[in-house]
């Protein structure tokens, strides 16, 4: 059976190999609630609830992608085409709470889990790293996405765990989009982020891999 890759958030090249990551468990809550957003917008009716809720999700996803952060606890899988030659894997999102597993995907469709004693986890560095401390076999892996690190990232399970400047920036971004409702042209530059919100987010911007 031909292997079909999942839908990835992004893809980059490292050591000549493609690396991708995919969301496996979405956050159970948003960093700001519908009630908080409506209070910020001074709206006391329910007519715009669907729109405001969608803007909250869109703002969170934009901020996460722009900063390389996971705000509320969520699970991801980070794939590389091969076992890293340098024995170190930098994880693409932070803050990392835990590494759930390191898996090897075989060319015939099977999967094996690397013993936890074969690697160390450095969550103090930014980005967090998985460092292989023992030889991990590379023979027999499928030709792409054969090496997987499953990890959990986010500031915490609740909105209150997210730093207040980020939450305030999200409110400003929701208000900006709600009041203008203008089409945004997609491209490499900032996507309709007000300057004051960008300033609140600047201290949390991570060095991209």
From TrEMBL:
Organism, scientific name: Methyloceanibacter stevinii
Matches recorded under CDD domains: gp6
InterPro entries named in the record: Phage_CHP (IPR011738), Phage_gp6-like_head-tail (IPR021146), Phage_HK97_gp6-like (IPR006450)
Name of this chain's protein: PhiE125 gp8 family phage protein
Highest taxon, organism lineage: Bacteria
């Amino acid at each position: 059976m031909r292997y079909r890759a999942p839908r990835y958030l992004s893809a980059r090249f490292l050591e000549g190999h493609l690396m991708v990551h995919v969301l496996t468990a979405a956050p159970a809550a948003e960093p700001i609630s519908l009630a908080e957003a409506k209070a910020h917008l001074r709206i006391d009716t329910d007519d715009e609830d669907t729109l405001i809720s969608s803007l909250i999700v869109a703002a969170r996803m934009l901020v996460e992608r722009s900063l390389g952060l996971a705000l509320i606890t969520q699970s991801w899988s980070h794939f590389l085409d091969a076992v890293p030659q340098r024995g170190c894997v930098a994880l693409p999102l932070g803050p990392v709470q835990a590494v759930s597993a390191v898996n090897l995907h075989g060319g015939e469709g099977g999967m094996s889990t690397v013993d936890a004693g074969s690697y160390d986890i450095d969550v103090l560095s930014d980005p967090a790293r998985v460092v292989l401390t023992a030889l991990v076999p590379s023979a027999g892996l499928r030709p792409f996405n054969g090496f997987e690190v499953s990890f959990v990232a986010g500031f915490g399970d609740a909105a209150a765990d997210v730093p207040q400047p980020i939450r305030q920036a999200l409110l400003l971004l929701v208000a900006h989009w709600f009041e203008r409702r203008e089409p945004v042209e997609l491209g490499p530059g900032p996507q309709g982020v007000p300057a004051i919100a960008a300033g609140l987010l600047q201290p949390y911007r991570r060095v991209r891999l």
